[in-house]
Structure to design on (134 residues):
């Protein structure tokens, strides 16, 4: 099967009831630069943040359960989880918690040689911050 129109960008759209809180967390606390911002009729607002390189990870139930078990100790992730690679997981975790994210699991070394921490972040986003160690 040949791909006629390859995907050019992955854009995850988060509906945040607390728009300003979610924007402050992802832009100001985690340091994701603002690419574009738009305002529309009726108070409509959207800000597009640069998340670096994007990938789409498709996992079956057994894989999701195994990842949750390794990183948290039990199943916590919903239908999707946002994972952001950072330079220093411990420092980013401290920033995330101080910036309003609720810690779910501290930075944990995984069998795939990364350091991963879990949070419930503003915008109702289940978040992994990870640092590649290899």
């Amino acid at each position: 099967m040949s791909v006629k129109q390859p995907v050019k960008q992955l854009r995850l759209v988060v509906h945040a009831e607390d728009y300003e809180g979610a924007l402050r967390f992802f832009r100001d606390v985690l340091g994701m630069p603002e690419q574009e911002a738009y305002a529309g009729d009726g108070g409509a607002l959207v800000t597009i943040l640069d998340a670096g390189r994007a990938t789409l990870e498709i996992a079956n139930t057994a894989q999701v359960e195994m990842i949750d078990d390794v990183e948290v100790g039990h199943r916590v992730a919903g239908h999707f989880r946002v994972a952001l690679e950072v330079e220093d997981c411990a420092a980013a975790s401290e920033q995330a918690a101080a910036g309003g994210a609720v810690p779910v699991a501290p930075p944990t070394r995984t069998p795939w040689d990364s350091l991963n921490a879990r949070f419930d972040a503003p915008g109702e986003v289940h978040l992994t911050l990870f640092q590649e160690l290899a």
